[in-house]
Write a structure and sequence with these properties.
alpha+beta
Length: 396
Amino acid sequence: MKTSFRWLGLAVMLGLAWTCWAGAGESFRYPESKQGQGELRWINDLPILIVAGENEAIGQQIGALALRHAQRLPHYPKDLLRAFKMDWSWPTLLGMGKRMLPQIPEAYRKEMQALAEASGVDHDLLIAGNTFFDIKKMFACSAILVEPDRSQTGQVLFGRNLDFPSMGYLHHYSLVTVYRPGGKLAHVSVGFPGMVGCLTGMNEKGLCLAINEVYSGGDRSPTFDAKGIPYAICLRQMLEECSSVSEAIAFLSKQPRTTCYNLSIADREQVGVLEVTTKHVVFRPAQAGICTATNHFLSRELALPQQNNIYDTLERLSKLDGFRSHGKLGLKDVAQALHEANLAHHTLQTIVFEPSRLTMHVAFGQTPSSAMPLKAIDCKPLFQPQPQEVTPKKKG
């Protein structure tokens, strides 16, 4: 219990100091390169990393093609703690992360080890980076989802902002990664190299998801359980195995969960939010064809009697809900809603998915990302495996 209060204190401290950092700082550009089945190339001025094969091969490809060039990135958790004069908590954070490691499926543990070896990054830093999200509370994301009947396109639209303290450099390391895992569903993830899990993604069946952290729920469940699977790992597994919202609900309900969060989710026909605690998974459907989410629960089962306004969660939700009166919404409307809900230099990534078209529109690299033009990526050809190169036989 004392540990939970300690990390809640960190969340409050971060909330009070939310506007401390500007989005300026170093610039960075991933170099184009290839290794094995992996390739990093720029498409529509966005860095796209394509990886394929079993988990160890994927880890080697990400480590060599991306993380090796982003050596500052794995130090982000330490930098964040240092900024708040909480260096003392690093051994505790790392120790809690190591307690979670046995719950991570073996294939992903092997991928993490291969990442460390290929990139030269300390394995402990990768453990912390892949469990940090579950232990602390610092995300302040927003999402708006539109069902076909309320969409100008007649198809689902799914928009999200990823809001996170940039420390003046994190936004420079954003990366689109396309996974073609052996025997599993291909999917795309918008995040950072070194993250084995997924915060924002879509798979080849059109299942889309995005995480929004929540700080407490009305069911009085523990806000952290080290016996759960780190949620980003769990969400990647969901993209690799599930084809629809209903399958995703069944999958997540069976998983041991580490903490509470909103999971905005959609397939080609349905949208909603999974309100998740260590005890419960509650599906909150769209109302009048639109679903919105920030950083608190709204369902009857999990909403708090009085909601704390951490990271302006109430104001951001109100801005998103203001678009309910706009009639049918198009891509520009969803983008505008996300921009109105932005958190200045902490809005690092803005994404709008069109699952029926397997297309996504992405903005990152500057803050707030919602002020940048969205750039389209057609994921269909990226999901398709490339034909194996055949060496022609020599004559004679």
